[in-house]
Amino acid sequence: MSTNTPSPSTEPDSPADPSDAISVAQRTDVETAVPAEAPVYRCDYCGRPFATESYRTLHHGLAHEGVLTDEGREAFEAAYEDENASLRRFRIIALGLLVLLYFGFLFVFAVVT
Ligand SMILES: [Zn+2]
């Protein structure tokens, strides 16, 4: 298993939005691990392992924003949009399931009582 414990970052902590409650260091200083037989995508700047290329691209944009090339920045923006689209889809599906569950229990309650 390939692991990497967080190390103190030498980069300035500069989140895109100053009102953001979670700083970049807090978002990126988590331990990452990849199973031994799985392909590993290592960060070009800090060597942290990631399970997918998309995760590594997102890490580049969040943790190494200051040193990214234009190509890296474009890849980060594309990966960020994909991640946002996936989150939006998940939220819509979760909301739909909650509504179904609510009305399901409501109809069961109406029939039983
Ligand atoms: Zn890195």
Low-confidence segments = 7-15
Please give the alpha-carbon distance between the first and last residues: 56 Å
Order of helices and strands: EHEEEHH
Tell me the number of helical segments per DSSP (H or I, 4 or more residues long). 3
- The helix-and-strand class reads mainly alpha
Heterogens: zinc ion
Mean pLDDT: 84
Domain tally:
1
* Alpha-carbon Rg, integer: 20 Å
Main pleated-sheet profile: 2 strands, antiparallel
Q: For the largest beta sheet, what order do the strands appear in spatially?
A: 1-2
Shape: elongated
Strand content: 5-15%
Helix content estimate: 40-55%
Please provide the count of β strands: 4
How would you characterize the overall build of this protein?
With 113 residues, the chain is mainly α. The chain has one domain. Helices cover 52% and strands 9% of the residues. It is built from 3 helices and 4 strands; from the N terminus they run βαβββαα. It has helices at residues 24-28, 53-63, 70-112; strands spanning 2-4, 32-34, 41-42, 49-50. A two-stranded antiparallel ribbon has the order 1-2. A two-stranded antiparallel sheet has the order 3-4. A hairpin with a 6-residue loop joins strand 3 (41-42) and strand 4 (49-50). The site of zinc ion (ZN) has 7 residues, from helix 2.
Short description:
With 113 residues, this protein is mostly helical.
Key traits:
binds zinc ion, two-stranded antiparallel ribbon, 9% strand, mainly alpha, 113 residues, 4 strands
